[in-house]
C-alpha cells in the first residue's frame, strides 16, 4: 500500500489550502483514513479521520474550519482547510489503516505565515 499526499504550501493567516491523498495497492474496501500533523518540536497529532462509510471526526483545534472527504472509488481523501492559523503550520501526513495495519504517506508541508 502506498500513499501520495499533495497540496501543501505557504498561505497567509485566514487563507485556505486543500490537501489530497491517494492510496494505491491492495486497498481493502473497509478501511479508515486520516490526516495527522506534526509541528516542529511537537508530537504528531490526529487532525481528522474518516471511515469507509463516510463518518468523520475532527480534533477540537480544527473543528469548524477543516473538512475531510473521501472518494471510495478512487481511494482518495481530501482535507479542505479554511481560516488557517499560524498554529496550523506543520507537516501533514496521510494515513490509512487496513485490517489493523497502518500505512503512512510521506507528508506535505503546510506553512501559515504573513
Give a structural overview.
The chain is an all-beta fold. The chain is built from no helices and 11 strands. It has strands at 2-6, 9-11, 17-24, 31-38, 45-51, 56-58, 66-71, 76-81, 90-98, 101-104, 108-112. Strands 2, 4, 5, 6, 9, 10 and 11 form a 7-stranded mixed sheet that branches. The protein has a 4-stranded antiparallel sheet with strand order 1-3-8-7, with no helix packed on it. A hairpin with a 4-residue loop joins strand 7 (66-71) and strand 8. It is globular, with a radius of gyration of 13 Å. The N and C termini lie far apart (37 Å). The mean pLDDT is 95.
What is the gist of this entry?
This protein has 114 residues and is mostly beta strands. The chain is built from no helices and eleven strands.
Key phrases:
mainly beta; 114 residues; 56% strand; four-stranded antiparallel β-sheet; 0% helix; 11 strands
Give the total of beta strands: 11
Q: For the record, give the distance between the C-alpha atoms at the N and C termini, rounded to a whole number.
A: 37 Å
Q: Estimate the helix proportion, in percent.
A: under 10%
Largest sheet composition = 7 strands, mixed
Write the layout of secondary structure elements.
Layout: E1 2-6, E2 9-11, E3 17-24, E4 31-38, E5 45-51, E6 56-58, E7 66-71, E8 76-81, E9 90-98, E10 101-104, E11 108-112
Parallel strand pairs: 2-11
Antiparallel strand pairs: 1-3, 3-8, 4-5, 4-9, 5-6, 7-8, 9-10, 9-11
Amino acid at each position: 500500500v502506498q500513499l501520495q499526499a499533495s497540496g501543501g504550501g505557504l498561505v497567509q493567516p485566514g487563507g485556505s489550502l486543500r490537501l489530497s491523498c491517494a492510496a494505491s495497492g491492495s486497498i481493502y474496501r473497509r478501511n479508515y483514513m486520516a490526516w495527522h500533523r506534526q509541528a516542529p518540536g511537537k508530537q504528531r497529532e490526529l487532525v481528522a479521520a474518516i471511515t469507509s462509510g463516510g463518518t468523520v471526526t475532527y480534533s477540537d483545534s480544527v473543528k469548524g474550519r477543516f473538512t475531510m472527504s473521501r472518494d471510495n472509488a478512487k481511494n482518495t481523501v481530501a482535507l479542505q482547510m479554511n481560516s488557517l492559523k499560524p498554529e496550523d503550520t506543520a507537516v501533514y501526513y496521510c494515513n490509512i489503516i487496513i485490517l489493523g495495519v497502518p500505512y503512512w504517506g510521506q507528508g506535505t508541508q503546510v506553512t501559515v505565515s504573513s
